[in-house]
Amino acid sequence: MSFPASSDLSRGSSRLRDGGREPRQSVMIQSGETDDVELAPGLESSTKPEPKPWAHLLAGGIGGMTAAALTSPLDVLKTRLQSDFYQAQLRSLRAAHPLPQSHSILSLSRSAGVHFAETVQILRSIHVHEGWRALFKGLGPNLTGVVPARAINFYVYGNGKRILSDYFGYNPDEAPAGIHLGAAAIAGMATGTATNPIWLIKTRLQLDKSNASNIPGRGRQYKNSFDCIRQTVRHEGIRGLYRGLTASYLGVTESSLQWVMYEQMKRVLARRAARRSADPEHVYGWQDFMEEWGGKLTAAGSAKLIAAAATYPHEVVRTRLRQAPTVPAGGGKVEMKYTGLMQCFRLIFKEEGMAGLYGGLTPHLLRVVPSAAIMFGISQRPIP
After folding, report:
1. Looking at the structure, do residues 72 and 198 belong to the same domain, yes or no?
2. 24, 184, 312, 314: which has the highest count of C-beta atoms within 10 A?
3. Where is the composition biased (Basic and acidic residues) (predicted)?
4. pLDDT tens readout for residues 72-118
């Protein structure tokens, strides 16, 4: 007489204990059994899916377009204050409202108020003397530049961070600051090289106005963007479209600093969210909602504020180089006032002092800080 194997007996007794039902398959993985193991249906990993490479491109483009359209008047004002064309108007305003010489807290606050009043007054004068359309002058090339610029920047940064993390063996979500810095530098240089001609045209259109010439009956120097391109190439050659590129490369420090700080702030927010999720007694409330949606906006705005204020002089130098003003050279000839990056730095400091290197800082910060928050908010995925 044969007896059933012990394994059959075990299965039979198990069925009896479970009322005749087959036992449920265990999903517990024993030590040493991690190879070729599949989880039961419905128990797949809950890790976030890897974003598609093109998602960075789309997110950056949409966010950049929205931010540029909403902050265009401040961009026009910033460009004019950075140039030397409007310095006479600014000097007359400061002569009527001299800044306090004391360094007390009260004087500093009054000085900040005067700067803000100057910004509002010049913005109003543009509207009164040139019409509301002047507040959006250069918006066409601005949008033409912002959309590809932000798309390229987000695309190269997001995928560059992933590639560098894979190469050096890091998890992209936990990569060190060096990975973020390298990806941001590569993204900044790629963006600056690809879009410099667009920004040059935008700058020259924003500095162009009906009374720019003293010749009676003569209107604006440039009819439109295409005319600006034609005249620039005819008088300065193809290289003229890349004036200010060296200053744009110097500006890579700003975007790199912004990305690194934003990543670190975002990581802190993610850790706080993870601790709340791990707490079984935590009740989701409006504070969590505000931190979830407002945290990244605040992080993006704060990172941009610090980065822009720390590296602002390169913005002024870049605008001057793109503006390409001329000075008499004798014999009825003229020559370029600014011939290079360092020469431009030295000449501005010599003629206008340190304040000249920070011309237009107030409208610049009023524009780029909310612009960064809007851009990162519109492209909320989070990025990258």
Report:
1. yes
2. 184
3. 15-24
4. 888 887 777 777 666 666 666 666 656 555 445 555 566 666 667 76
